[in-house]
Design goal:
Layout lengths: L6 E4 L3 E13 L2 E9 L6 E5 L3 H4 L2 E2 L3 H12 L11 H13 L3 H17 L4 H22 L3 H22 L2
Antiparallel strand pairs: 1-2, 1-5, 2-3, 3-4
Helix pairs in contact: 2-4, 3-5, 4-5
Length: 171
């Protein structure tokens, strides 16, 4: 059970702070809900308290775990996914994002960023790139207590350098 003020991750939506726990009636049933305020886009989501664990709501990563994001972003890409089937890549990436794992979301962001810089992305993958970036940033903002713009510039710079190094090593 979480408490008001806890910082949590809600898979597919990102990280936020539990602002309240409220009893609400929906479809004739009364349940308790976490009201989670997300730092990006100033959105609030309601999650039933009795299903939060099954949905995958978890505490945000601590600073040490969040710092691993930068290591993942810095690591050279072995190669871009050879899977030319857009649907398979998309499905695999959705599964990674749904996992709620900061590391898997980072991998999606990194691969899509590299693919975008090399070949460009379809409209669906561009949206997924934005989604993965926002989810990643929302957790970093809360776990590292830094502003959105600073962290956005930091991860974009690391990914760009990683891509440039990848290109250089493949010449």
């Amino acid at each position: 059970m979480f408490s008001i003020g806890d910082k949590v991750v809600y898979p597919m939506h990102g990280a936020g702070t539990i602002e309240a726990i409220e009893e609400k009636e929906m479809l004739g049933q009364t349940e308790d809900y976490y009201i989670i305020k997300m730092p990006i886009d100033d959105v609030k989501v309601m999650v039933p308290t009795n299903r939060a664990k099954n949905i995958g709501v978890r505490q945000i990563s601590n600073k040490i775990e969040a710092d691993k994001v930068y290591l993942i972003l810095e690591q050279p890409m072995e190669q871009l996914s050879c899977d030319s089937n857009w649907n398979k890549r998309y499905s695999s990436n959705i599964d990674k994002i749904k996992s709620g794992s900061i590391n898997e979301v980072t991998e999606v962001f990194k691969e899509l960023s590299h693919r975008h810089m090399e070949k460009g992305l379809s409209l669906g993958e561009k949206k997924m790139l934005t989604t993965s970036k926002n989810i990643l940033l929302s957790e970093l903002v809360l776990s590292q207590n830094e502003c959105h713009e600073v962290l956005d510039n930091k991860i974009e710079g690391i990914v760009k350098l990683s891509f440039d190094n990848w290109i250089e090593s493949n010449l």
